[in-house]
Amino acid sequence: MYQLMVKIGDHLISMTTTSSEVQGWVLETYCVVDTGDETKVCDLHLHIEAGYGLPFANQAYKVSAEETSIIYERLDYQLAVERDFTRALLKVNEQISLKHAMMNLYSAFIVHRNWGLLIHSSCAIDGGRAHLFSGHSGAGKSTVARLSHPRMLLSDEATIVRIRAGQVDVLDSPFRSDTTPEFTAESFPLAAINLLQQSSRIFRKPLTTSEAILRMMDKSFYWAFSQQETQNILGLYKTLLHVVPVYELEFQKNDLFWEAIS
Length: 262
What we know:
alpha+beta, 5-stranded mixed barrel, globular
């Protein structure tokens, strides 16, 4: 049995597996901390099994709520989480299955705790503050991440946003597609959210709070299973957008959009 303690955001997840392949995937992707430190109390216990289902083919999934657990299922993974989100069992087919399932688990975990959101976006640091870039598939999130070099990137696919009354921060995300996390423990205040639109011009327009809520609600990684959890997400977005402005950002495929932001 392999045992690892992984840090995501500011949460500690104890992972166990009998598979050396799964252990390798975890070591390759996540920030593993010293399991010998008895002062570290984990937030979630997760056991991972390999050899489940079929290779990844599409994002189709189903969710079922049972008396003591919530079951998330896709052809390439099955995730069973206790309703208090302290323990979970994950069965995966391949490395990308583990990545998607962990995004599923962590997103549901932080929403359940009313801690924050995992938002489909890239995020870069400029002047000590975080700037988040989101939009529909193909809008340019990865392009903006690449064009933001040499600024530090906190994400290029899924941004971890911690939401508290009067304060919203971004933390380094391991959920990446093209870049590697630096595993920095530092958090950065979120200065703005930019909804991307590729254009022949560079133009930035502020959105009203009601417009922003409508545009942002489908940007979270979230698998709805109850009305209460949906209300939790709505409440988190309302708190977020009370603090952080949202803009529509038209941009060209160059780094001049940073001039509009600055």
